[in-house]
Structure formats: C-alpha cells, structure tokens
Amino acid sequence: MTTKTYHRSVCPLDCPDTCSLLVEKENGKITKVDGNPDHPVTKGMICHKVRKMPERTHHPERLLHPMKRIGKKGGLSFERITWDEAYEEIISRFKAIMEEYGSEAILPYSFYGNMGIINSEGMDRRFFYRLGARKLERTICNTAGSEGYQITMGKAVGIDPEETVHSKLIVIWGCNLISTNLHQVIYANKARKKGAKIVVVDIHRNRTAKWADHFYQIKPGSDDILALGIMHIIIKNDWIDEKFLDQYTNGFESLKERAMEYPPDKVAGLTGLHEEQLMELAQMYGTISPSFIRIGNGLQHQKNGGRITRLITCLPALTGQWGKTGGGALKGNSRYAEWNMQKVQRPDMHPDSDVRSTNMNQIGMALQEKDDPIKALFIYNSNPAQVAPNQKLVRKGLMRDDLFTVVHDLFPTDSCRYADIVLPATSHFENLDLYKSYWHLYVQLNEPVMDPIGECKSNFTLFKEMAAGMGFTEQCFQDTEEDMIRDALDNPGSPYLSGLTLDQLKRDGWVKLKLEKETTFPEKIPTSSGRIELSSPADDQLFNMEKDEKRDYPLQLISGPNHQFLNSIFSNLDSLQALEKPVVYIHPSDAEDRNLQTGDFVEVFNELGTVHLQAEITEDVSEGVLITQGLWWDDEEKERYSINHLTPDGLSDIGGGATFFNCFVGIKKA
Ligand SMILES: Nc1nc2c(c(=O)[nH]1)N[C@H]1C(S)=C(S)[C@@H](COP(=O)(O)OP(=O)(O)OC[C@H]3O[C@@H](n4cnc5c(=O)[nH]c(N)nc54)[C@H](O)[C@@H]3O)O[C@H]1N2
Ligand SMILES: Nc1nc2c(c(=O)[nH]1)N[C@H]1C(S)=C(S)[C@@H](COP(=O)(O)OP(=O)(O)OC[C@H]3O[C@@H](n4cnc5c(=O)[nH]c(N)nc54)[C@H](O)[C@@H]3O)O[C@H]1N2
Ligand code: SF4
Ligand SMILES: [Mo]
C-alpha cells in the first residue's frame, strides 16, 4: 500500500506572488501541487502553470547527470561523465584561463530561474567573488524602473498590497496582472466590490484590460507624456494636496513648470488618446482617494523606462496618497527584506574592487570583445540563448570554439546547445531555501520535500564543491544552507527584519516583515533630503533624450510574457504549449496593407534577424504595433527561433536596463 504525504513548499519562480504551495507526494514522487490555503496572502490560489510542476519535476527530459560535449557547438550531442570528471575539467580549464588571461576572463551568467536567496545569489556569489571573476550587471528585468522610482522615493518599495482592498481607484499601469500577478487581481476584485474603479493603461487590450472598468490604450513609450498630461490637468483644476506637498516633498514648482508644457491637446496627440479620455482619466486620478498605482514591467522595457517610472512615481504625492490606507504606488517590494548581503555574498573576498563588469543585456557584444576577452562563461538560473536580446550576436559569441561554457540547469535548454559541460540542477522541491516576494511582505522558508533526482545538485552544493576543488579554505565555504539563512536574517539595522529568526520560519513557514508607520512612507522617505523629490538633478539627463529617432522599420514589436510560461520556463511542457500560440497580433489596417489573413505564416524581420510566426488579426492592438507573447524554445522542425533575434541590445535611459520593446520591424507573408 502506498501512502500519500503532504508538504509545505514555496513557488520559486520569478513572479511577484511567491505563493505558498501544498505538495502531495506518493512513492517518492510529487503527484500534485496546489495552493496552501493557510497563507495569509496567496490563500490556496495558484496559477495553472505551477499546477503542472509534477510534470516538470519528473519530466523525461530532465538532466540527471553531468555531460561533456562530443558534437559541435549548436547541437545537443553529449556523453555522460561523472561529477568528479566534470569538476576536474572545469577547474583545470578555469585555472589555465586564469593563468593566461586573469580571473576577469571568467564570467558568471545567472538570473532568477529560482528566486531562493541561497540558490540564486548565495554560495555562487561567494565563489565568484573569491575567484576574482568578472562581475555581471543583472539588469535584464527591472533596473530602469527601479532607478526611476528611487529618484523620486529614495528606495524602490511601495505599499503593502494587502491594503489595496481599501483603494477606491486602482490604476494598473503597464502590467498584465491577470497573467503576471494573480493575487493583486484578487485584491482589486475585493476593492471593486466595495466600489473601487479599476483602470488599465497599456498599449495592448490584454487579458487585464478586458477585465478592467476603464482601459486607456496609448502609444508605446508615451507614458511619461501621459503622466505629465495628468499632472497638468490635476494642477490646473487644483486637485493637488498642498498640505502634503509642503510637508513631504521638494521641487513641486519645477515639476509644475514641466507639466505646464503638456496641455491636453498636445498630450492627446502624443499618446494617441482622445482629449476626453485623458480628461476622464485625470479627473479620476485627481479626485478619487485613496488611489493606488500598480506599476508594471512592460514600460521599463522601453528605452525611456527610467523617465516613465520616475514620472509616474511623482503622481501619488501630488494628491497626497502616501500614508492613506490603500493609497500610493507599488512597483516592487523586494527591498523591504533587507538581507545582510555582505554576510551572504562576501563581496569583500574579491581580490580586485575595480574588476570589470559586463551588462547581461549586452552579453552578445561582450563575447565579441578582442581585448581582455571573456574565455569562460558559467551559466545557471538563466537561459541566455532564449532570454537575452540580439540573439544572433549572442549565439555567435556562444559558438566560439575558444569559449569554455558550463551550463547548470534542470533541462537541456537552448543555452545547453552551446555548453562544453552540462550539469544537472535540482528543483526547489529538492532544496532548502529562503524566499521573499517582490510584491507581498511575507518571508518564507522552503524545506525540501524530496531527495535529489538522479545526480542533480543544487546551486548551493555545486558552488560549495567548486570552492573546495579550487582549494579555497575560507570558513564561509564550510557553511550550511541554514548558516547562510541566518546570515541573511542577521541585519540589526533593518527595522523590517526585526525579530525575524530561522526558528520562527521553521515553526510557522512564513513571517510578515514589520512595516510600522515610522519606518514607511511618508513618515520615512529614504531620499537624502528625507522628502519626496519631485524634481532632481538626475532629470537633466533623463529629459535630454533625443525625441524622434529615425526608424528603419514601420512597426513596433512588443514581445512580453505569456500566460502559461514563466519567461522560458515551462515552454517545453506539452500540456502548457498546447494552451499557447506562437502568433503575432496585428491590427486590421496593418494586415490589410500587407494582404495578410489570420493564420498566415509570416516573417517578422529587421536588421537584426527574422522570426517566423503566424498572424492573428485583432483590434486589441493599435495600428503600428505588433504583439507576440512568450519565450518559446527553438523548434528547428517548425523553423521557430527565439523572438529575441529581433530585439535590440541598447540600454535604457538609466540603470543599464533592457530595451526589448524598443524594437522596430517589418512583416510579410512567409
Ligand atoms: N505568466 C507569466 N507571469 C510572469 C512572467 C511570465 O513570463 N509569465 N514573467 C515574470 C517576470 S520575470 C516579470 S518581470 C513580470 C512581468 O510582468 P508585467 O509587469 O506584467 O510586465 P510585462 O508583461 O512585460 O508587460 C506588461 C504590460 O505592459 C504593456 N506595455 C508594453 N509597453 C508598454 C508601454 O510603453 N506603455 C504601457 N503603458 N504599457 C506597455 C504590455 O502590453 C503588457 O501588457 O512577470 C512575471 N510573471
Ligand atoms: N523578448 C523578451 N525577452 C525577455 C523578456 C520579455 O518580456 N521579452 N523578459 C525579460 C525578463 S523580465 C527577465 S526576468 C528575463 C528572464 O531571464 P531568465 O531568468 O534567464 O529566464 P528563465 O527562462 O526563467 O530561465 C531560467 C533558467 O533557470 C533554470 N533554473 C530554474 N531553477 C534553477 C536552479 O535552481 N538552478 C539552476 N542552475 N537553474 C535553474 C530554468 O530551468 C531556466 O532554464 O528574460 C528577459 N527576456
Ligand atoms: S508562478 Fe506566481 S502565481 Fe503561479 S504559483 Fe508561482 S508565485 Fe503563484
Ligand atoms: Mo523579469
């Protein structure tokens, strides 16, 4: 007879909700993944894709043992080797490269395939700092917005989302909540039942726009102008909160001057809205309180993403929202969990504080460098051969015979096609780890629910053993996962972590960060002046950007996430692929100009490359805009290759962020 057992777990994915999970296990295998009803925020509700975790965890294609390349780069021909052989090979290659080129010729490439601190930014960091490796600027996701937000508010954190059930106006700005932040939708629905209005500002009538009460469809990247236009109307109508401005802000007069340059007729023209729509939106924002703005990631992938976020972040101060229950904004909240990163990562071990760094968005370019070349790449928690822009250049770099590449993953991803050594990674069900959310305020402990599959090793174990192999004798390489979790929590300077211990997490599973009136907006504003900065010296650079660049291609392609995948994760599961379509949405008039019908196979192209998709004609997109969703693994048979063959590797106005959506293309029948 078999017995089923039930275990608490945490969703490890790069998703704001960080749900608590309930896992069913039978005969050593995970048979069901559900939401944990006891969690105060996620309350038993999880997305459909994570219900497919059993299929992912026990998938026949999971990597089970280390492998070494036997065929040419670009293909997946490998032979099995032992862990000892893998370590021997990696360490001897690393030592030879360090001897000839210096340790800066070795570059780690990682992101957040798993968000647990121990397995995403813990022992790996210690290892690469101690090695003296080149640094990676991890800028692919949200740095433009974070920096923009920070100029205004001092720190990129917002309000407690649990409060948003009390909001009376919820503005969802460049964020596809129904696909990317499920539980915010649940709170918004509760607020709506009590009379709140839900507004979406987006370039696409996406799932979230269809659910909202009001939808404002604007031209891509025109959000900064829209924000100024709203300010203009609010100021003209005297809907501002002067008392709040006096007490908590600096620079209102300069911001006002700027906003006065954007009267409604001009803003309507530049954003694509009708003047009446703009007035309606501004009136709601100016007169309904408490109001909440959920700022998404979509706008941060425009080249003016920093400026856009900077300006949107000024809005709540104008009407005095901060401090009202359910009033304010939220772009991300991860920085409330002020882990002691010095202890966790030990950057002090790096032998060279001036070490070179590489922006992960420009990995293609970096791999072409002839002076001080990158000679080794260690990829984990990331799939650059899918997710990074300008893929043709990325893959040209990865094809280099003189580049030694290691990939640690659960699956033979497209990045593995370029690996010399492939190493099998455990899933989070096999690890101990500590999770924070970048939306809600609960810190959670994830305890392993099963033994590692095959010969898989966690990132933690891998880098600990690599350190031993390199002969690193520092005590920190002896640490256990629990030691590192204690290090993370050991930050007496943080009011938010106060009293939080590992024992408490072991007992309860989660603990809410302590946000008190004195330590949050508007009582505590972490800018250097202690006030919200409505104008800043940083604006000179932000507002000096060139306006209308010459465009060689007529259509702007926005390639954001889809509903059933998580970045490139899950795109190899048949059950989820079946629910998604590799299509490109096109407006009827753009389709007509090119004689395209729904279902036609099309080539989408620009100077960087060509991608094949199927056309779907819809008025959900505006004229001049194309939308495609999801990062699909390459499929040679179907001639389908990463959408990032079309996206540019230019950087955003601030923060060195990615500009995936600043992408101009043509389209024709294939
Ligand atoms: N299902 C699912 N969930 C995910 C992910 C996933 O891949 N799939 N990825 C996770 C990750 S890593 C992230 S960063 C988040 C991202 O999730 P979101 O924050 O929701 O960001 P995106 O989906 O990139 O873009 C959101 C919306 O911005 C719109 N947009 C694009 N350009 C503009 C613009 O210039 N102005 C305005 N106003 N809107 C614009 C797009 O049409 C899109 O509807 O989701 C996380 N959650
Ligand atoms: N065109 C376009 N490109 C985009 C985006 C977009 O909207 N449009 N979004 C961008 C954004 S916002 C982001 S955040 C990035 C995401 O970029 P990545 O974080 O690189 O994306 P993922 O596809 O999630 O890849 C993570 C990989 O880590 C592996 N993994 C999971 N857990 C572990 C583990 O514990 N150990 C190891 N070693 N591996 C593990 C997974 O199997 C997966 O292959 O993509 C960016 N790329
Ligand atoms: S992907 Fe997001 S919504 Fe889905 S279970 Fe994980 S945290 Fe929850
Ligand atoms: Mo992201």
Write the layout of secondary structure elements.
Blueprint: E1 4-10, E2 20-26, E3 29-35, H1 48-51, H2 53-57, E4 67-69, E5 78-80, H3 83-101, E6 106-110, H4 117-121, H5 123-131, E7 135-137, H6 143-153, E8 169-173, H7 177-180, H8 182-193, E9 197-202, H9 207-211, E10 214-217, H10 223-236, H11 242-248, E11 249-250, H12 252-260, H13 264-271, H14 275-287, E12 291-295, H15 305-312, H16 315-318, E13 328-330, H17 341-345, E14 357-359, H18 363-366, E15 376-380, H19 384-387, H20 391-398, E16 404-409, E17 421-424, E18 433-435, E19 442-446, H21 459-470, H22 481-489, H23 502-508, E20 510-512, E21 532-533, H24 538-543, E22 555-560, H25 574-577, E23 583-586, H26 588-593, E24 601-606, E25 609-617, E26 625-629, E27 664-669
Parallel strand pairs: 6-15, 7-14, 8-9, 8-12, 9-10, 11-21, 12-13, 15-16, 16-17, 22-26, 23-25
Antiparallel strand pairs: 1-2, 2-3, 4-5, 4-17, 18-19, 19-20, 22-27, 23-26, 24-25, 24-27
